[in-house]
Amino acid sequence: MDYIRDCGLLVEEHLKLIFRNDSEINEVLKQSMEYSVQAGGKRLRPVLLLSACEAVGGEFGSALSAACAVEMIHTYSLIHDDLPAMDNDDYRRGKLTNHKVYGEAMAILAGDGLLTHAFYMLSRCADDVSPEIVCKLIAEMSYYAGPYGMVGGQAFDMQGDQSPNATLEQLEQIHRHKTGDLIVFALRAGGRIGGADELQLEALKKYGYDIGLAFQIQDDILDITGDESKLGKKTLSDEKLQKLTYPHLLGLEASKEKVKALTESGKKALLEARIPKPERLLDIADYLVYREF
Amino acid sequence: MDYIRDCGLLVEEHLKLIFRNDSEINEVLKQSMEYSVQAGGKRLRPVLLLSACEAVGGEFGSALSAACAVEMIHTYSLIHDDLPAMDNDDYRRGKLTNHKVYGEAMAILAGDGLLTHAFYMLSRCADDVSPEIVCKLIAEMSYYAGPYGMVGGQAFDMQGDQSPNATLEQLEQIHRHKTGDLIVFALRAGGRIGGADELQLEALKKYGYDIGLAFQIQDDILDITGDESKLGKKTLSDEKLQKLTYPHLLGLEASKEKVKALTESGKKALLEARIPKPERLLDIADYLVYREF
Predict the structure, then answer these.
(1) Residue of A19, A131, A143 with shortest CB distance to B120
(2) Which residues of B209-237 are buried (b: 16+ CB within 10 A; e: fewer)?
(3) How far out from the chain centre does Cα A197 lie?
(4) What CDD domains has UniProt attached to this entry (chains A, B) (predicted)?
(5) What tens-digit pLDDT sequence spans chain A (293 residues)?
(6) Do the Cβ atoms of A207 and A281 come closer than 8 Å?
(7) A118 versus B42: which is more confidently predicted?
(8) What's the rounded Cα separation, in Å, for the pair B147 and A30?
(9) Class of the CATH domain delimited by B2-290
(10) How far apart are CA B176 and CA A190, in angstroms?
(11) Strand, coil or helix: B76
C-alpha cells in the first residue's frame, strides 16, 4: 500500500534527525540507537498515529513528534526483547540484532535511551497542542507502554511461554498488552492531537485492540505459512521456541477467520463513531489482513 | 541526620502505595519492581527534590509524586547496572540484586517498567502544578535521565572503564552524567514545583553538579577506606574491577580536599542566589561529606 510506505518513509526522515550531528551525546550509544531505529520495519505504529490524527480532522504535521516517540518505544522494546536473557534472537528484519553488533551492555543502554528520549519527543508536541493535551499524552504513553501495558504483556508472555496448558484467555491477555496497548496508544495519541472527542477516542481504542490482535494472529499465521525471503526472518520459529500461538490453539483456518472477523469489527467501530475521514484507517485494517510480511 | 532519614521514610511510604493491591498488573513483575524500590538506600534524590521545593518556599506535599518518580528512575538504573552484561553485581545494599532473585529477563523488564512508570508518576504532578510546568518537568526528566544525561553517562563509563589512560576530564564527564544529571534534575524539579525563578533554578543546578561530584568522589573514597558492615557492600570493588577513580588519579588526600571544596562551592551557589530557606540543602551538603555509607 503506497500510503503506508510513504507515511513510513516520512517518519523515517524525521527519526534520522533526532540525534544527528550532536556532539553532546556518547557516539557509540548514538550509533547503537540509530542502528535499530533505522533498521526498517513497517512503521505501523507511527503510521496509525498520523492516520488517526488525519482521520479526526487534525493536521498531519502536528503529530510527527508523537509519531517518532511511539516508534522509539516500539524500537526499544524490540532491542530488549531480542536480548539473550529474553528471546535471544540474532536477527531481526534480516539484520543482526542490536546486541550482536554493539554487545549486550550497549543494547540495554540503547533501549533505555530510546525509551527515555521517547518522552522527550512526546513533550515536544507542546509546540503544536496545549500543555493539557501533552500531559494526557504523557500519562497515556507511560500507562500503555509501562507495567500496566506493554512491559506487563512481556512479563505475561514470559510466564505464558512456560505453561504448556495455557488458555485462549491467557494468550489474548498477553497479546492485548504486548502488542495491542502500544497500537491503542498510537491511535489515541493521534486522535487527541487531531482534536478527537471522547467517543472518537473510545472508537480508536476498540479499532486498535481489534486490529492489534488481528495483526498478532496474522504474525502467528505467517510464521507457519509465510515466505522467509519476504518476512526477512526464519519461519516456524514459534514452534521451535514452543511458543503458544493462535494456530496452535484454534487451528490455521479458524485463526484466519478470526483475523477477518476482528478486522471487520475494528472497522465497524470507526464507522459507528462517525470519524470524519476514516478511509485510511479502514485501508490499513484491510492491508494488515492481506499482508505477506 | 534525622531530617534525611524522616524525609526518606516518607518517600518510602509513598513508594509502597504505587503498585499496591492492583490486580491489573503482572504479579511477578510487580514483586520484582517493589523488591528493588523497597530495598532501602539513602533516598538522596527524592530528599533533595523535596528539600529544593521547600527551600524556594513551595509545599512539600505537592512534590511527592515527582519525588517518587526520581527514585523510580534511580532504582531502574541500579537494576540495569547490576545486570551480568553490565557490572555483574550479586549484592546491592547487602541484599541480592534483582536479577539474582527474579532472573535476568524479569530484571530487565522491572527496570523498563520502573523507568516508564516514573513518567506516569511525574505526569500526576498535574494535580498540584500547572500543565505548563508538568511539560517542563517531563522534558527535563527525559533529558537528564536519557541519552544526553544518565544513560549517556553509563555509556561513557563503559568505555572509560576500558581505557587505562583515561584523564580527569573523562572521569568528570562520566560522573557529571552518570550521577550529577539525575541529582540536578531532582533539584530543579523540586525548585520548579516550589515556584523557583530561573536564577534559583540555575543555582540549584550548580549546587547539584557540585554535590553530585562530591558524592561520587566520596563513594570512591569509601570504597577504599570504608567499613563494609556500614556500607552494606564489599570495599575495594573498584580496584578489583579496575575502575578508574578519583583516589587513583589524584591520591586519597587530594580527593578528600576536592570533596570539601565542591561542597563549599555548591553551598555558596545557593546563598548567592538568595534561595529563601536554604538550611536543609546546606545541611545535606555537609552530611554528604561526613557520611560513612
Answers:
(1) A143
(2) bbbbbbbbbbbbbbbeebeeeebebeeee
(3) 23
(4) Trans_IPPS_HT
(5) 788 889 999 999 999 988 876 778 999 999 999 999 999 888 999 999 999 999 999 998 999 999 999 999 999 999 999 999 999 999 988 899 999 999 999 999 999 999 999 999 999 998 889 999 999 999 999 999 999 999 999 999 888 755 667 888 888 999 999 999 999 999 999 999 999 999 999 999 999 999 999 999 998 899 888 777 776 667 777 776 677 888 988 999 999 999 999 999 999 999 999 999 999 999 999 998 877 76
(6) yes
(7) A118
(8) 8
(9) mainly alpha
(10) 37
(11) helix
CA distance A133 to B126: 12
Name beta bridge partners: A96: A91
Query: ipTM greater than 0.85, yes or no?
Result: yes
Residues on chain B touching A123 (C-beta within 8 angstroms): 135, 138-139, 142
Beta-carbon contacts below 8 Å between A and B? 164
- Supply the Cα-derived Rg of chain A in whole angstroms: 18
Confidence of residue B133 (pLDDT cuts 50, 70, 90): very high
Nearest CA-CA distance, residue B153 and chain A, Å: 8
Evaluate whether A73 touches A46 at the Cβ level (below 8 Å): no
| Whether B187 contacts chain A with CB within 8 A | no
List chain B domain ranges: 2-290
Cβ atoms of B48 and B187 closer than 8 Å:
yes
Cell reading at B253: 588526600
Altogether, the residues listed in chain B come to a count of 293
For B156, the enclosing helix (H) or strand (E) is: helix B150-162
Assess contact for A210 and A266: CB atoms under 8 A. yes
pLDDT at position B224, please? 87
Within a 13 Å sphere around the CA of A210, how many CA atoms are in the beta-carbon half?
Answer: 24
Question: What does the alpha-carbon distance between residue B239 and residue A230 come to, in Å, rounded to a whole number?
Answer: 51
Strands B95-96 and A91-92: unpaired
A-chain residues near B158 (CB < 8 A) = 105-106, 109
Place of cell 526477512: A232
The three cell numbers of residue A152 are: 506487563
For residue A84, give the nearest of A74, A96, A94, A99 by alpha carbon: A99
Instruction: Look at residue B164 in the predicted model and tell me its pLDDT.
Output: 61
3-state class (DSSP) for residue A91:
strand
